[in-house]
Amino acid sequence: MFLTAKILFFAVNGLLRVTMGFDIGLSTKCVVIPKEMGMCHKIGYSEMRLPNLMGHTSMAEVILKSTTWQHLAHTDCHPYVRTFLCSLFAPICLDTFIHPCRSMCVAVRDSCAPVLACHGHLWPDSLDCNRFPADEDMCLASLTKEYKYLHKAVLPKPACQTCPAVEEFFTHKRVLEVFCDSNFAVKVKLSKKRTVFGDQEYNIECQVEFITQGSLLPYETQNMIQQWLLINENCTQRMTPTHRPMVYLLVGNIEEGTILVKQAYRWQRRDSQLTLATQKWRYHKCL
């Protein structure tokens, strides 16, 4: 849903709390959201106010500081992580600034702080939720309750974990034994490249081999594995030692609503054992 549409939705449902606007006391201007800020594209508007709500006064500073948050936005650690971050780094060009409400900050922080911790970072003081207005002020409120209502089936979430062992030598019989103790197996093709800022960026392609957990659909499982690989970037780095594409079969379980990858098999081009295991799995009877 586009952000402008969200603002109207908030207003209609009483979620856009209006008393008075908040401004940072600086003369601002409308500028086009730069191409380097990919996380703030396709959100319903194309121009932002500068200086922004983080106090960045130049576009160069905005791009530099926002780059460190793009990876978090791509993990989809919360449904409104992009809305929250872009309302600060690239606020929409209106007559006044609209902050995210404290409740939205808390909801995003509670979901995304563990992801930052997985990369060795704490939730920063610059995003201290106490700095944002309470819900009775003019602000973008959290849609946590409404989101849960619209999405009654709560999907499992990927979490930070110890990297699974990577197996390169195995038999199809051993793989089938592991399949029998698992809820999913997903074939993943990984490749990486360097961004203009020198960071690593990953291209992830997924193909679901099987799912045995509840009513999960293949595309949901693909999205969750992609999120797992972004959250556990240290594992993804280990699996892509070079810039050459690598293919793996990730196998794991869903425990208490959390996705856990317990085994990774290196799927080499002429590997017949994994191909045989995935073919035999359709008719295999577990003991």
Structure description:
With 287 residues, this protein is of the alpha/beta class. The chain is 34% helix and 21% strand. It has 9 helices and 10 strands. Strands 5, 6, 7, 8, 9 and 10 form a 6-stranded mixed β-sheet that branches. The chain is elongated, with a radius of gyration of 22 Å.
What features would you highlight for this structure?
six-stranded mixed β-sheet; 9 helices; 287 residues; two-stranded antiparallel ribbon; elongated; 21% strand; alpha/beta; disordered N terminus
The biggest beta sheet reads:
6 strands, mixed
Q: What is the share of helical residues?
A: 25-40%
* Beta-strand residue fraction: 15-25%
Backbone structural class? alpha/beta
Averaged pLDDT, please? 83
**Estimated radius of gyration:** 22 Å
> Strand-and-helix sequence, N→C?
HEEHHEHEHEEHEEHHEEH
Tell the overall outline: elongated
Give the total of beta strands: 10
Q: Unreliable runs, pLDDT <50, ≥5 residues?
A: 1-24, 144-152
- State the end-to-end CA separation: 47 Å
Number of helices: 9
Which helices and strands appear, and what pairs or packs with what?
Elements lengths: L2 H10 L16 E4 L14 E4 L8 H16 L6 H9 L9 E2 L1 H17 L20 E2 L3 H7 L6 E2 L6 E3 L4 H9 L3 E11 L5 E12 L6 H14 L1 H7 L6 E10 L2 E9 L5 H9 L7
Parallel strand pairs: 3-4, 5-10, 6-10
Antiparallel strand pairs: 1-2, 7-8, 7-9, 9-10
Write a brief caption for the model.
The chain has 287 residues and is α/β, with parallel strands linked by helices. The protein is built from 9 helices and 10 strands.
